[in-house]
Amino acid sequence: MSTTQTAPQIKDTAIAGDLYMSFELGDKSWKVTSSDGQRSPSRYNVDAGDTAAVAHCIGKALERCKLEPQVRVHSCYEAGRDGWWLHRWLIEQGVDNIVVDSSSIEVNRHARRAKTDRLDGDKLLAMLLRHHRGERVWSVVHEPTPEDEDARRTHRELARLTTERTAHMNRIGSLLVLHNLRPHIIVGGRDWPAWWARHGAQVPPVLRAEIERESVRLALVKQQVKVLEAERRQELADGKQPLVAQLAQLRAIGPKGAWVLVKELFGWRRFANRRELAGCLGLAPTPYDSGGSQIEQGISRAGNKRARALLVELAWSWLRLQPESALTQWFNRRFAGNGKRMRRVGIVMVAS
Q1: Beta bridge partners of 288
Q2: Which CATH architecture has domain 4-143?
């Protein structure tokens, strides 16, 4: 949910007689703040996920503002762990809802500022009114379809399992070093059981039991990784992922990278130009030009961090596997001989 599109600059669309609502979502309770733009805000507390209570709050807010039940209701909430289910439910109820990128919301720059759910709800409501008057106040998150959202689960779970697998392997290796055991084989690999059978007796019994439990967890993670990777290979073999197969034909982009790019970006998003793509990935520049100060602060690092990290990795592969390309030659002329730091700067430009 980190990919964003900038809210367009439009004419004043805040209509007198409409109802505006903001949702401050918490784990246990939600703060619902509403107003028609003329009266002071009214606030309601509901249990998290209680849609019946939310519908009741909308009715109470309409009654308080003396509005007809058929008037337009506008709402917003910050993108977070609740995802898209609330947005889709509100749309089904006829509410004009938007999901806001929380990092794009302006904040008070004082060193100490008051922050409560009530203040945050009031702030969201005020900015929602400004948004409907045509001001550029935040970035609106682009909604994927339920199918596209679900399709992203496979590679994200694989990434988490891969990290977990590495953590288990490093943990076992660290425990063995406590007794000067440094296996030359891969921990958890094919030769690991035989190595452990020969050297496990050198480890005290309590630590040996801990390592064996860690090995069981490692084996489970590795099995789950194999299952997910096999399912993904089968989908590619059956021709169910034509975009992934087409993208993987480029040298320097393999099936794994192509899968992530399609599921996170190109399979469901539409970009009008390269600037929109760079903004979505957080690869857009952030210049600072004020008075006599002109500084380039680097890339924004907003947006989809998974795809951004992958593109930087693919950029290194591009230099290695496409040495005759114009992009590689430009990188070599500009950055290759200027030290490690400049090469890291240049590779981000290649990824862009």
Answers
A1: 295
A2: 2-Layer Sandwich (3.30)
